[in-house]
Every structure is written in structure tokens, then in C-alpha cells.
Amino acid sequence: MVSTDGADLERHSCDAWPVAVKWRQQGKEPHRPAVVVRPATPELVARLMRWATESGVPVTPWGLGSSVTGASLPVRGGVALDLTSMSQVTLLDEVNLLVRVQAGKVGLELENELQARGYTLGHSPQSLDRSTVGGWVATRSTGQFSSRYGSIEDLVVALSVVLPTGERVETPMVPRAAVGPDLRHLFLGAEGTTGVVVEVTLKIFPLPGLRLLEALRFETVDAGVESMRLITRAGLRPFLVRFYDRAEAPYAMDDPHLEDGCIMFLGVEGVAGVASAEMAAALEICERQGGQRLGAAPVEAWMARRFDFSSVENVLGTPGGVAETIEISHFWDQILDTYAAMKLALAPFATTVLGHFSHVYPQGTSLYLIPLGQVADDAAAEARLLRIWDAAMRTALEQGAAISHHHGVGLARLPYLAQGLGSALPVLQRVTAALDPGGVMNPGKLGHQQARRSIPAAIREEK
Length: 463
Description:
The N and C termini lie far apart (44 Å). The protein is built from 17 helices and 19 strands. The protein folds into four domains: 2-82, 2-Layer Sandwich (Uridine Diphospho-n-acetylenolpyruvylglucosamine Reductase, domain 2), CATH 3.30.43.10; 89-206, Uridine Diphospho-n-acetylenolpyruvylglucosamine Reductase, domain 3 (2-Layer Sandwich), CATH 3.30.465.10; 210-303, Alpha-Beta Plaits; 309-407, GMP Synthetase, Chain A, domain 3, CATH 3.30.300.330. The protein has helices at residues 6-11, 18-25, 42-55, 107-116, 133-139, 146-149, 152-155, 221-233, 249-252, 272-288, 297-305, 310-317, 332-346, 378-399, 417-421, 425-435, 455-459; strands at 2-3, 35-37, 59-62, 79-82, 89-93, 98-102, 119-120, 156-162, 168-170, 196-203, 205-206, 210-218, 240-244, 262-270, 292-295, 321-323, 326-331, 352-358, 364-374. Strands 12, 13, 14, 15, 16, 17, 18 and 19 form an eight-stranded antiparallel beta sheet that branches. Helix content is 35%, strand content 21%. The radius of gyration is 22 Å and the shape is globular.
């Protein structure tokens, strides 16, 4: 289907990036497509891409527009390629534990269908109900249960991709291979700059036999982070490890009157005997660091509302409301210094800065920061959000941290991409240029073609 309806074009002109939300509130549409196309089959995607490359027309793949970095905004106009009409499950392999699904499938719909058959994806981002399988691949997504199940790059077995030239490529459908470089990674995290992902084969897992949950209170951030480090060092694999600082703990506990303290949510699942032993070992580690058990109820309540994004959305919805979500990652021996530096850098631009640690690895963890504030109006809020991004990214780079853990680059991080990748940037540019010689695939992203207007330039407009 091809649409030039004004409301349809407007919907595809704004994603969930708070800066874009402020554009919409001011009636601004700096990145409006000329047309929205909803193909029903991979063959139609291939025909479109051949035409677009021959004609030099920009194409920006679109899932549900839930990117919080501007990754899906059509900065050169052209075609917004909406893939939500392609949402079929084409294979459920219960022997080899695989599901093959078209890229436009909504994550929560797929998870519900699998659970009805006794399986789970193990992939559960906060945006599960507002994101698609193709979007996960494009942005190198991770989920709240990644410490047990891994991130999307660990779960993707094979991809079907339409290249900008219209060719369809299938990566090998095998459990593992050593046949040259792993070509899946040309498309994982590429944000639609190397091709259009049309079908994905994912691992699935049997639903666990037992799930155990516990909340713990810690006196200091240091003690909680050290507990997380020791849990992963011991080889334990809880599906849930989230640790909230004093500022965010009341939000996590849904208790604005919560007394001082940091909060950890811990969860294990699997075969009953193994899960019980794993929880006991994790709790012993936490208690040695001063953790105090609070019971399962706070975690159960959080599990029931974990897709709720309203704390940020409600602030953004008010005139002059300022709210952002910025996630980075670092090694264990540097994450606390980075946390302190990031909180200090963001404090001048927000009333409060919430912080939590999650997505743990034996080598390190992610750090998620949520600055919240209020300024005079939405124009001032737009400028303030750009100042927040600049302060956060410059501080992350100074600390040697990854400038993104799982939200991707989009427009928010584009001005900092060169520093974030360093000497590897030319490799990315050569790959995207080779696969997209016409420069039509989501141009203006990931350094393939620069956007018209840089974010640092916009920062100088703040009064």
C-alpha cells in the first residue's frame, strides 16, 4: 500500500526520541517523508529497493517508531518503508527451538503466541509492546532479561535481508559456522543503512519450571554494584538483575515516600533445583555486601508494570517538560567513576537524575540515566535536551565508556559517532558505501551520509 495521507506522513515524521516529541509539540516536522509504503511481501520490498536505488530516492525502514534516538526519522524525506504489514510467523521448530518471523511482527504479540505454545523469546525490552522484531535487529536491542538469555545478537540465528540494490540475501541457517566473517553483523545494529531486514530466525526457550524473585535494599551504590559483579563472576545467570540508586529507587518501588536506600531486583528461573540453588548463592553474595531482603512483592509489582514508560512520557507531555533516557556501558573497575561523572555532568540540566545498573556481564554492566526537569516552554525544552545529550556523550567519551549500550545511534548520538568508534569508523563507512552505493538507505545515519543539521550547532541556539 502507498499512502500520501497527511496524518500518515505526520505519524512517520516523529519517533519516541524526546527531542522529536518536542518538535511535534511545537508543530515542527523537520523530517517528513514524501510517501509511506507498506509492502506485504519481501518481493515487493525488493522491487521498491531496485527502483529507489535506480531513481536515487531515499528509503527509511520503519517498524513502530519507538526509537528513542531518532533512528527511524527520514532525514532526507523520500519513502518511509513501514514493515508492519509483514508480520507472519513462518516457522516454529519445536525440536531445534527456533522461530522464523517476518520483520514487522510486534514483539509482545510474538511472545504471547510463543507462551501459548510453552515457549519464550527470552527477549524482553521495555518497548516489547511497541517495537518489532526488525527494529530489534536494526538497533542491536537488548532486553530486561539479558543476563540469562543474551541480547538480540545472541538470539538471532539467521536473517533474510533485501539489499539496497534489490537483491535478497539469506545468511546460513545453522547453529554455528566458521565460514568466513559472521555476515549477520553487517545488519545487526546497522539501523537500516545496509539493507532492509525482512525476516528473522530467532532462538526460543521452553518456559521455565520455576521462577524466584527477591528485592534487596543496599545502603550504598558501591555495595550493590559490587554484588552484581560478584554474581556474574561466580558464573550465576539470574534472568533479572537491576540495581537502582537512591534517586530512582522510589520509582522502581512505586513508593514516592520510600526511605533512603538503593534497591536491587533479583530474579532466577529454570529447572527447580538449579533455580533454587542459584537464588541461594546470589542472595548469599548480596547479604555479604550488606543487602537486606525485602521479599518478592516489590519485584512482582514491577514485573506487572515493566512496560510502563509513563514516568518519562508524562514529563515530556507537559509544556516545557524535560526527560531523557541515556544508556552507556563500562567495565566493572570504571563504572562507578563513570556513574559519578555522569550524574555530576547532568545535574545542571535537570531537577533530578535517576540512575540504575542492569544488563550485567562478567566484564561490566550498563548504566541507565534518566534526567528529569522543567523549563519555560517546549522550545526551551528542546534546547535543554540537546544540552543534556552533549554533556552525557562528552562525559562518556572522557570516561572511555561505550556511548550506547542498547538504544543505538540515530540522530541523538550521530555527532559523537566518530569519537565513539575511533579508528574503526572508516570500516563502517566502507561497508555501508559498498552495500548502498546509491546512498538511499536511511541516509544521514551512522556516518554514511551526514545529516543536514548537527546537534552541537543546535545547542548554540539555546537562549
